[in-house]
Amino acid sequence: MQRVADIVFWLAIMLWFALSVVGGVAAMAIFPAARELPLSMAGYESFIAAEPVLGRQLVAGFLVERVFDLAQQPRVVLAAIAVAALAVRLALSQRAKSVEPLRGLRIAAIVGAVASVGVSFAALEGFRGADARYRALAADASTRAQAIEAKTEVDRTHAFASRVATAEVLSLLAAAMLTAAAAGARRRA
After folding, report:
1. Distance CA 131, CA 125 (A)
2. Dihedral sign from CA coordinates of 154, 159, 160, 165
3. Distance between CA 61 and CA 117 in Å, rounded?
4. Is 37 helix (H, G, I), strand (E, B) or coil?
5. In terms of DSSP H, where are the helices of the chain?
6. Could you tell me the pTM of the whole model?
7. What is the CA radius of gyration of the chain?
8. Residue 69's closest CA among 131, 138, 136?
């Protein structure tokens, strides 16, 4: 049963990790490509014509947004599965009175990753609110100057969301490394 818990844990954190980085990977591919393409989008033509750099970023943002949307809920499910699998693993090893190396650090890494997912929902709401305001202003040709000002709030909330995402990814990497180290220590014991 411990082996099953380990396998479920590994699968959950690896899928969770993949979903945590997929949005960033998509953004790294789409935003540079958008700089070089003659992009347009219905309702934003005048903004894109007047502000081509910001306009291309706006279009790219619409494209990348869907990737983040698709990854958000599954990350929560995988976080719950990983926590449950780790709890089962630790409980079984305690019941068997076996040594569970790096227990506290592994728990801390998973808690950090779960906390990051929770904070990411709040960060996403803040970003979405700022982005919706920016998009509404950008869609109205008469509010172009206000749209440019609103972009600073989008950038600020994006920076916070990026830091939260980085914390999640680093916590998952730490959990994976600590779990591998614990498995090695158990084999040597």
Report:
1. 10
2. positive
3. 21
4. coil
5. 2-36, 45-50, 52-95, 103-139, 144-188
6. 0.87
7. 21
8. 131
Q: How many CB atoms lie within 10 A of CB 89?
A: 23
Burial of 138 (0-12, 13-18, 19+ CB in 10 A): buried
Q: How far apart are the first and last CA of the chain?
A: 19
pLDDT tens-digit series, residues 143-167 = 999 999 999 999 999 999 999 999 9
Pick the closest to residue 52 from 77, 34, 73 (CA basis): 34
The pLDDT of 114-137, averaged and rounded, is 95
User: In the chain, what's the furthest Cα-to-Cα distance?
Assistant: 71
Q: What is the 3-state secondary structure (H, E, C) of 39-93?
A: CCCCCCHHHHHHCHHHHHHHHHHHHHHHHHHHHHHHHHHHHHHHHHHHHHHHHHH
User: What's CA 108's distance to the chain center, in Å?
Assistant: 19
Is-contact 86 69, C-beta < 8 A?
no
Residue entry with tokens 């502000």: 51
Q: Which residues of 35-54 are buried (b: 16+ CB within 10 A; e: fewer)?
A: eeeebeeeebeebbeebeeb
Count the neighbouring beta carbons within 10 Å of the beta carbon of residue 27: 19
Distance (Å, whole) CA 120 – CA 111: 14
